[in-house]
Amino acid sequence: MKPTEILRAEHVVILRSLDVLAHLAQADALDTQGAALLVEFLQTYADTYHHLKEEQQLFPAMHANGAPRHFGPVAVMLDDHDAGRTLVGEMVAALEAGDDSAFRVPAMNFVELLRDHIAKENEILFPMADGMIPEDQVTEVLAGYEVFEAECGSRPEELCSKVLAMAERLALPETTQAAGGCMGGTCGAHSDAARQA
Asked: What is the pLDDT of residues 11-54, one digit of tens each?
């Protein structure tokens, strides 16, 4: 099991959440309750659970094996993470102000940013990581993931289930490949299942 396989599985869930976010942002009337759930998901699952796992485990392992810190693919991914956090902050501010129209622009900008970001990670960064992190360090990264996931508790998985249920309720067309992760039907412990595969 490679560390990137777990992250790819999480990407599938995040991409599905972007389908929901785009739907909400483009609707005539904003579902503020649904939007608040999506924002919490983006903060808790996409950023804290997923992006910090990359930043605290995968990227340092890549740096230790020659990936530059201040330019190149890892630096670009970190810039994207920061840009995403800014956009989520704008969405939060719009919801707190009750300004539906102010929510729509950062929401759609976030959808575009993160879809592109995930494509870059899947197609460029992750193959790079797979080729440069030696097996003994792979084990260390996976162990770091397990510690991090335990510290996060069950909330990320609960939000994952709610967002996927929302996508199903809305009967949205799937614009992402349903392979791995929570898209297999249940959301719980998807990383553990992937490790045992």
From this structure: 999 999 999 999 999 999 999 999 999 999 999 999 999 999 99
Type and span of the H or E element at 163: helix 155-170
**pTM score of the predicted model:** 0.88
Domains parsed from the chain with CATH numbers: 3-196 (1.20.120.520)
Three state DSSP letters for the chain = CCHHHHHHHHHHHHHHHHHHHHHHHHCCCCCHHHHHHHHHHHHHHHHHHHHHHHHHHHHHHHHHCCCCCCCCHHHHHHHHHHHHHHHHHHHHHHHHHCCHHHHHHHHHHHHHHHHHHHHHHHHHHHHHHHHHCCHHHHHHHHHHHHHHHHHHCCHHHHHHHHHHHHHHHHCCCCCCCCCCHHHHCCCCCHHHHHHHC
pLDDT (tens digit, 9 = 90+) per residue, 120-173?
999 999 999 999 999 999 999 999 999 999 999 999 999 999 999 999 999 988
Query: What torsion do the CA atoms of 125, 116, 102, 157 make, to the nearest 10 degrees?
Result: -60
